[in-house]
Amino acid sequence: MNNFIFENKTKVYFGKGGVKEYLGSLLANYGNTVLLAYGGGSIKRNGVYDEVTAILHDAGKTVIEFSGIMPNPTYAKVQEGAKLARDNHIDLILAVGGGSVSDCCKIVSAQANLDEDIWEMQTVKHALPNKFIPLGTIVTVFGTGSEMNNGAVITNEDKKIKGALWGAQADFAFLDPTYTMSVPMKQVISGAFDTLSHAMETYFGKPDDNNLSDDINEAVMRSTIRNIRVLLTDPENYDARSELAWASAMAENGILKIGKVTDFQCHMIEHQLGAYTNCNHGAGLAVIHPVMYRHICKDGAARFARFARNVWGIAPLSNDEATALAGVEALAAFIKEIGLPTTFAELGIPADSDLRAVADSTVLTAGCCKKLTHDEVYEILQECK
Ligand code: NZQ
Ligand code: ZN
Predict the structure, then answer these.
(1) Does the global pTM surpass 0.85?
(2) What CATH class has 11-179?
(3) 134 alpha carbon – ligand 2 mean position (Å)
(4) Whose CA is nearest to atom 39 of ligand 1?
């Protein structure tokens, strides 16, 4: 195993009723003014907004609202939030929503304390912020695992880049699976597939030999696959929802990455597809993954064969290459089985989208068995049509 340093500072309150039980006392640790951040309004329809605002008011907090954070949050929205936070001397940001709300708030938390532009700071100067407004999250849809890390994915519309920025990591995160009961099933499944994607992008990183992280990862992948299937036949199943909620956090809280260099090439392609088309993240990954893996699995046949055996239960075929490909086809069949799109047409990507520009602006990673070129990314995108 490679050397590593590991720390995860987020305190997790997992399970039914956690917000009611613990949020009030937690608020005592922070100043008076709270920025309550949320998305397009689902929290007003499912009762979460009422529950949280009542607790904030009981705790005597002054609440400033930052609403309308869109899926695939934009850099302009980050700047709007940062101004609001600065103008109101915010003491705590409370992000209530999915990955988009959480990501936007991580960067708001940093930008509010900076005189310079955080995009330029990170992408040009390669410097990181170190002063943050404290952040807490209440997760209402699972998949990104954003709640236990400091990474954020922000769409810079002017530059046509959907890219990673580093911001605040939440002090605390409430993971209550009952909050997800109102999420449309399509989103629940695309979120859960995002979890599976994070696990795969880590599993196919380096080194790909004997590694405890990979053994744990296989369990996370099997659990995610099993519980997606449970939810499709029994959508209200709390147990399956809670397993998926924790798998989501586990796939992105750093534990599976211990001792490894991760890959995330599929994410890099999907993010640029998102920059050009604003597509749904998990659904975009579902289209790209099998196509990309068909391109590379021969170069990492032993690892892909292990994925086939240990994750999909495929008996070894005549050689590793054949077993590897069978594993990729099992993944493709699973994507179809759970109703995720398998082509860009099904995903709703306009036929005249500029896939050449998507390919050319994709960050190329070297964490997997094969480093792709921009031309190969373009071929993959063409095959996704
Ligand atoms: O905006 P509202 O009205 O709340 O509706 C949201 C949104 O339309 C809805 N929703 C959330 N909770 C709900 C609910 N609807 C009903 N009931 C509830 N309880 O779900 C929709 C999607 O929300 P969003 O936050 O966009 O989804 P997700 O959590 O999948 O986040 C996606 C974003 O996270 C980024 C993605 O690229 C994308 O921008 N990612 C962040 C990562 C990270 N920080 O670690 C890693 C990921 O790989 C990913 O890239
Ligand atoms: Zn993802």
Answers:
(1) yes
(2) alpha beta
(3) 24
(4) 72
Condensed to tens digits (0 to 9), the pLDDT of residues 157-213 reads 999 999 999 999 999 999 999 999 999 999 999 999 999 999 999 999 998 788 999
What is the distance in A from the centroid of ligand 1 to the CA of 145? 10
Candidate of 187, 188, 253, 285 to mutate for ligand 1, largest count of ligand atoms within 8 Å of Cβ: 187
- Structure tokens, 348: 């709703």
Interatomic CA distance for residues 111 and 134, integer angstroms: 12
Whether 181 contacts 382, CB under 8 Å: no
CATH topology of domain 185-384: Dehydroquinate synthase-like, alpha domain (1.20.1090)
C-alpha 314 – ligand 1 centre gap (Å): 33
Our mutation pick for probing the ligand 1 site, out of 69, 139, 146, 279, counting the most ligand atoms within 8 A of Cβ, is 146
Q: State how far the alpha carbon of 161 is from the alpha carbons of 87, 241, 275, 346, 356, in Å.
A: 28, 33, 5, 23, 14
Residues of the chain with pLDDT under 50: none
For the chain, what are the domain ranges? 11-179, 185-384
Same fold, 11-179 and 185-384: no
